[in-house]
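To illustrate the input format used throughout this study, we show a single complete record. The first block contains the structure-token representation of the backbone; no residue identities are included at this stage. The design step must infer an amino acid for every position from geometry alone.
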């Protein structure tokens, strides 16, 4: 089982709560557990109801790594798939492609590359990266590239 984790516009003030009900509805058939990570839980509570758990990042101003750390720490499953509220659900086919790559290469994570840009959105990580995240965040290192250099991952490129 994989947990779907929705990342919000933490700390920017530009939250997109209007699309959240549809996003949760789209994820529902595929993911038993859904987690929303936000620094403003009261803003999202009316839109989530009982469809997802709302969590606040442990480490402030360290996103996206703090959100990944929080999700992996509290998810019921061993792995999490990161989605961003502003991008919506890219489809189960992308998740399945990423999941197959993770299993085939036996990695700790898979990053999805869109339009030659690599980000944690649409990426899949398992709990084996928690130790690296904890160590890095506890000494206030927020560098995603440094985190990625310390784990075993592969890139999956967008198919056009």
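Output of the design step:
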């Amino acid at each position: 089982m994989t947990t779907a984790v929705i990342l919000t516009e933490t700390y920017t003030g530009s939250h997109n709560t209007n699309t959240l009900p549809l996003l949760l509805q789209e994820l529902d058939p595929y993911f038993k557990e859904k987690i929303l990570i936000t620094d403003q839980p009261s803003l999202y509570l009316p839109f989530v109801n009982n469809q997802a758990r709302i969590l606040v990042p442990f480490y402030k101003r360290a996103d996206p790594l703090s959100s990944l750390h929080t999700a992996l720490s509290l998810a019921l499953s061993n792995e999490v798939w990161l989605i961003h509220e502003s991008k919506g659900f890219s489809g189960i086919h992308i998740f399945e492609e990423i999941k197959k790559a993770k299993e085939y290469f036996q990695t700790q994570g898979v990053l999805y590359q869109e339009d030659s840009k690599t980000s944690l959105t649409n990426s899949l990580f398992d709990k084996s990266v928690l130790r690296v995240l904890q160590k890095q965040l506890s000494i206030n290192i927020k560098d995603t590239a440094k985190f990625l250099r310390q784990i075993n991952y592969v890139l999956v490129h967008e198919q056009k």
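Structural context for interpreting the output: The mean pLDDT is 90. The helical segments are 20-27, 41-48, 65-74, 92-105, 130-138, 144-149.
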